[in-house]
Amino acid sequence: MNILVTNDDGIHAKGIGLLIEAAREFGDVYVVAPNSQQSAVSQGLTIHEPLQIEQMENLFQDITSYAISGKPADCIKVALEYLRFPIDMVFSGVNDGPNLGTDILYSGTVAAASEASIFNIPSVAFSTDFGCFSIVEEELHSTIEYVLHHKLPSPGRIVNVNFPLNKFRRSKGIRLTTQGMRIFSAKFRHDEGKYWQEGDWVHVRNEKNTDVTAVSEGYISITPLGTDRTDYELLEVWREQQMKLMQKK
Question: pTM score > 0.90 for this model?
Answer without folding.
Answer: yes
